[in-house]
Amino acid sequence: MKQIITLIFLIAAWMNTATAQNGKYATVNGLHMYYEIHGTGNPLVLIHGAASTIQTSFGRILPALAKTHKIIAVELQAHGHSDNRDGRQISFEQDADDVAALLKQLHIDHADIFGFSNGGTTALQIAIRHPELVNKLIIASSMYKRAGVAPQFWQGINNGSFKDLPDEYKQAFLAINPSQDALHIMFDQCVHRMQHFTDIPDDSISAIQKPTLIIVGDKDVPLPEHAVEMYRRMPHASLAIFPGGHGTYMGELTTLKAAHNPPVALPVIEDFLNAPDNK
Q1: pLDDT tier at 16 (50, 70, 90 boundaries)?
Q2: How far apart are CA 71 and CA 185, in angstroms?
């Protein structure tokens, strides 16, 4: 436990340095949205998971990806540095529209979109609602229908409490924003969204024409069978299943004890992003 806490504070210290150098804000759809830009090359948008930040989801792979891409890493409503807008309930559709609006402000016409966990569901909504902005998609440990996770997940969502939020997420949030009230708002927003989650229609998934890499762990929150279903529905998809849990393959913060070093998925992700678009 001491090692994990030490890692959290080291990551937080690095993150504060990165914020001073790379962090910016944009007003999009009434949201004071935080984002970071790293590297040069083809644009690659990183979208974090629920209750997370740029660093908790992508901290271990962002430096490598920034060697070959211009990274636009965002923090969504109520998460990390970004505010809670006017207090409206968060939704995957609104998050998708916010990311799209940011890209338009930055004069980015096309980008690869990489979403982890709930960020992957947001990435799917970007491809559905704003297909003109998308070059390639990476959907990591994500779902598009309620049947994509075990029933126990929904029991946990309906019965969960703030104490169930991993300490790693609490510490990472408070290192950015020391407000306990804001932390609780973020948690409540995430729980409410999942309690009211409705399936994305199969036809909408099948209509996505972009090259897509679907990644999942064999002991993930989304079921591997769901990743296979998504892969079979999407006409230009590839699928990679790695040993481990929710983001173990990319070193997500809560998996650091079990994570592969270096992250085992990184070469697969880089090969997909750097390959010619043969769709």
Answers
A1: very low
A2: 28
78: domain CATH number is 3.40.50.1820
pLDDT tens per residue across span 135-188: 999 999 999 999 999 999 999 999 989 999 999 999 999 999 999 999 999 999
State the DSSP code for 223: -
Give domain status of residue 29, yes or no.
no
CA nearest to 208, candidates 112, 119, 131, 97: 131
Residues paired with 146 in a beta bridge: none
Q: Is 247 left (phi over 0), alpha (psi -120 to 50) or beta?
A: left
The CA distance from 27 to 221, in Å, is 33
Measured from the Cβ of residue 267, the count of other Cβ atoms closer than 10 Å reads 11
| Closest by CA position to 95, among listed 183, 206, 237, 193 | 193
234: in domain? yes
User: Which of these, 70, 92, 74, lies nearest to 32 by C-alpha position?
Assistant: 74
Whether 259 is in a domain gets the answer yes
Domain extent, residue 145, equals: 2-15+40-274
Structural domains counted in the chain:
1
Q: What average pLDDT score do residues 34-47 get?
A: 98
Model pTM score: 0.93
Gap between the Cα atoms of 170 and 251, Å rounded: 18
Locate 194 and state its tokens.
Answer: 């999942």
What whole-number distance in Å separates Cα of residue 219 and Cα of residue 34?
A: 32
Do the strands 69-75 and 42-47 form a parallel or antiparallel pair, or are they unpaired?
A: parallel
pLDDT at 230 over 60: yes
Amino acid (one-letter) located at 87: G
Among residues 205, 194, 168, the alpha carbon closest in space to that of 56 is found at 168
pLDDT at 263: 95
